[in-house]
Write a structure and sequence with these properties.
By secondary structure, the chain is of the alpha+beta class. The protein is built from 2 helices and 6 strands.
């Protein structure tokens, strides 16, 4: 599977993730099929940054009921990407 920038669904901006951004860690939400090596390739190719460390977390979709109808939220992967201290990605910062 070739890594592509469209595999990154969104950047997660929560209170915790904004605190991590100050230390150089970016939290991204991706497709469940993406691997750590693929994400490293995306950051090297599109942002020109070689991540120091990449941690992954698989988030399973929750089963929810709405007006008696059972539905399921989609599953996704969440990655914590630690960047070098001198690296700055302007499009990802708030």
């Amino acid at each position: 599977m070739a890594a592509d920038i469209t595999d990154i669904k969104s950047i997660i901006y929560t209170e915790k993730s904004l605190g991590l951004q100050e230390t150089g860690v970016i939290v991204v939400q991706t497709a469940p099929s993406l691997t750590k090596n693929n994400l490293r390739e995306i950051f090297k190719e599109y942002f020109g940054v070689n991540p120091i460390k990449v941690n992954s977390l698989r988030m399973n979709g929750k089963v929810k009921k709405f007006k008696g109808i059972v539905g399921k939220r989609p599953s996704y992967k969440k990655f914590y990407v630690q960047l070098p201290e001198d690296a700055k990605i302007d499009s990802l910062s708030v």
